[in-house]
Design goal:
The protein has 277 residues and is mostly helical. The protein has a domain of 157 residues: Alpha Horseshoe (Serine Threonine Protein Phosphatase 5, Tetratricopeptide repeat). 59% of the residues lie in helices and 0% in strands. 23% of the residues are buried.
Length: 277
């Protein structure tokens, strides 16, 4: 009988089943005491993109979680402010398709939970991907919108390319999720989207409404900005008035003090009487 084949050395073990190699473990934990793997001279060098500085990564992570919370709360103003901050921290390389480290959801999935079409539209304008799934249950933004009976959001997501036949972690499509909750109007929207003509109808209706909503948001933001400028202007005028009054009062006090001082000097010399003003 032939002897069994010798086992391969540790650095040649096949790890295709997902078991990390020593080199992978070191890459994940540079502080490990394991010996550093020496790459083969035949192996081609692999360039890795430079990682973000730890401080910047931490700031972006915290802001990303805050953004998910604001999206779930349907707070348009807070979402807008956080998007601007995240974009500034990321130096223009904004990625809204990352999942939250705490909840596993993307900002777009959180926005569909919250139910604000304005927030959903804002995120997609900033580059959010409609088909990016929740990291824990596989639900997309369309699953969430269908489950919460957000008809207008479902229509908008479909118009923006969301896949209505994509299954979640339980194997359910958004239409099946809507049906399980009895949201018949959403189910009807999915049935309409199954035909080419129906999808074109949805796109025309949804995107036309989107332009109207966008114009409405623009006008509302402009009105808010003008109101803030007027408020600031009124506050500045009031502050200037109070400053003038204080300066005038200080001048009058100085004048009275000077007059009293002269009168007291005259009284000391036997001329007149002191003032008690």
């Amino acid at each position: 009988m032939a002897p069994p084949p010798a086992a391969a050395p540790d650095d040649e073990v096949d790890v295709s089943d997902g078991t990390p190699s020593t080199a992978d473990a070191l890459a994940a934990d540079p502080s490990s005491d394991a010996p550093e793997a020496t790459p083969s001279s035949d192996a081609p060098a692999t360039e890795r993109p430079p990682a973000a500085p730890p401080e910047q990564w931490l700031v972006l992570s915290v802001l990303h979680d805050d953004l998910c919370k604001a999206c779930a709360a349907a707070d348009v103003d807070e979402v807008t402010a956080l998007l601007e901050r995240v974009e500034a921290e990321a130096k223009g390389k904004l990625n809204l398709n990352l999942q939250s480290m705490n909840t596993g959801e993307t900002p777009l999935v959180a926005a569909c939970d919250g139910g604000s079409l304005d927030v959903v539209q804002l995120l997609i304008d900033y580059g959010a991907e409609p088909n990016k799934a929740h990291s824990k249950d596989g639900m997309t933004a369309l699953h969430s919108a269908a489950g919460f009976n957000r008809v207008s959001i479902v229509k908008y997501l479909l118009a923006k390319g969301a896949k209505f036949d994509k299954a979640d972690g339980d194997g359910q499509t958004p239409a099946q999720v809507a049906a399980s909750f009895g949201h018949q109007e959403v189910v009807d929207v999915f049935e309409l989207a199954e035909t080419e003509k129906g999808m074109e109808t949805l796109k025309v209706e949804s995107l036309a409404g989107y332009e109207e909503d966008k114009q409405r948001r623009t006008l509302a933001e402009r009105a808010k900005k003008e109101a803030l400028e007027l408020k600031n202007s009124a506050a500045q005028r009031e502050e200037a008035r109070q400053r003038r009054e204080a300066q005038f009062a200080a001048q009058m006090d100085a004048h009275r003090a000077s007059v009293n001082e002269r009168r007291l000097s005259g009284y000391a010399l036997g001329v007149g009487a002191p003032s008690v003003a």
